[in-house]
Specification:
3-stranded antiparallel sheet; Cytochrome p450; alpha+beta; 15 helices; 5-stranded mixed sheet; 47% helix
Length: 406
């Protein structure tokens, strides 16, 4: 056994109680066992990758796709359907080849940097209104509930043309879809049926009376070949964007502020130099030790990784967060450096399946940080870091609350 080997099959995600710090196993795995056998919440076995070079290589390889309803692929979640990566929603969206590229091209033009810059004033205005409400109330307040959750929900609902008033239903439906260990199959099935029915009704309404939103454009539009999206793909696309468009960003807003406020020197540096906002956002994305599950990939053919031959049929779990702490890829990888540049982190993935909404997520994170620096320079955590609690049982990572005072 090489120095640093764990010497056992780990349960994955690796359990940890620290809200902001990575499990110590990450560093030991990168050094001694970068291709490690793990047991998933489903009980199925998989292979965990933790080094930057290996994770980037597998994510960028178009041969390796999400494990969607493949009999050989590992199930992720502790329920019969296997979780979001094995779901009917994922199956309804083209996963490979030209069909996936066509779908992605139709979606991605709604999430360009140019479009996000045009949206920026409205996002900032909404952030200010939400912050007005928080500051008018009592301190301490939960920054996640007051700003981190409602802002990205409002943005993605506006893009999709769905009412933000339904956000509590969206949150519950999203959580059941992202389940690892929290919900049973019966509850998941009932929630997802309601989610599909809701989105199907919304698609039908947009087909009858199109608006100026993304779903209306997808319904009425065609790709370069003149093909349009099926209703099943439209419903799944709406679901996927609604889940990804608010769940991950809402959690990241809370984690970003906890990271920046946990050491007052970070916040003071940003107050002194607002030009660091963009690089600070990239650095907290890299530094995030509580991102959730990572990205599974089904290996449809044999591949050698770090001297280990992985046979066809392997489910590889790419831990982007562990890779983002790789000392061979980032100088002082375990130090939060708000001015780090360049910063080629893997928080949004890489290749054909990289996050289609990353420009939106970056914009929202930057706006939140700018508004809080401008409006609440005295902001601080209202509890010790050790009192922050992680979100448990879901494929996304986050903090349950982010109590702050000012």
């Amino acid at each position: 056994m090489r120095d640093g080997d764990i010497g056992q099959v780990l349960n994955y995600p690796i359990p940890t109680t620290d809200a902001l710090e990575p499990p110590p196993e990450w560093a030991r795995l990168r050094r001694g066992c970068p291709v490690a056998p793990v047991t998933l919440p489903s009980g199925d076995g998989a292979t965990l990758l933790t080094r930057y070079e290996d994770v980037r290589r597998i994510l960028a390889d178009p041969r390796f796709t999400r494990p969607v309803h493949n009999a050989e692929a590992a199930r992720i979640a502790d329920n019969e359907s296997g979780g979001v990566f094995n779901s009917d929603m994922a199956l309804s969206i083209p996963q490979t080849g030209e069909a996936h590229l066509r779908w992605r091209r139709m979606i991605s033009k709604w999430f360009t940097v140019k479009r996000m810059n045009a949206l920026r004033p409205d996002i900032e205005a909404m952030a200010d209104r939400l912050l007005d409400d928080m500051l008018a109330g009592d301190a301490p307040a939960d920054l996640k509930a007051a700003l981190g959750f409602p802002l990205p929900v409002w943005v993605i609902c506006d893009l999709l043309g769905v009412p933000a008033a339904d956000r509590d239903s969206f949150a519950y439906w999203s959580d059941t879809l992202l389940n690892l260990t929290r919900y049973g199959q019966q509850e998941i099935d009932a929630a997802q049926q309601r989610f599909v029915e809701y989105m199907a009704g919304h698609v039908a309404a947009k087909r009858a009376d199109p608006g100026e939103d993304l779903l209306s454009a997808l319904i009425t539009g065609t790709d370069a070949a003149g093909d349009s999206l099926s209703d099943a793909t439209l419903i799944a696309t709406g679901q996927g964007l609604l889940v990804a468009g608010h769940e991950t960003t809402a959690n990241m807003i809370g984690k970003m502020m906890a990271m920046l406020l946990s050491d007052r020197r970070h916040w003071e540096r940003l107050l002194a130099d607002r030009t660091l906002v963009r690089s600070a956002v990239e650095e907290v994305l890299r530094f995030d030790a509580n991102p959730g599950f990572g990205m599974p990939r089904f290996l449809g053919e044999e591949v050698e990784i770090a001297g280990t031959v992985l046979p066809s049929g392997t489910t590889a779990v790419c831990s982007m967060a562990a890779a983002n702490r790789d000392e061979t890829a980032f100088r002082d990888a375990d130090r939060l450096d708000l001015g780090r540049s360049p910063n080629s982190h893997l928080a949004f993935g890489v290749g054909a399946h990289s996050c289609v909404g990353q420009a939106l997520a970056r914009t929202e994170l930057q706006v939140v940080l700018e508004v809080l620096l401008r409006r609440v320079p005295t902001l601080e955590l209202a509890v010790g870091v050790q009192e922050l609690n992680r979100v448990d049982g879901l494929a996304v990572g986050g903090l349950r609350e982010v109590p702050v005072r000012w």
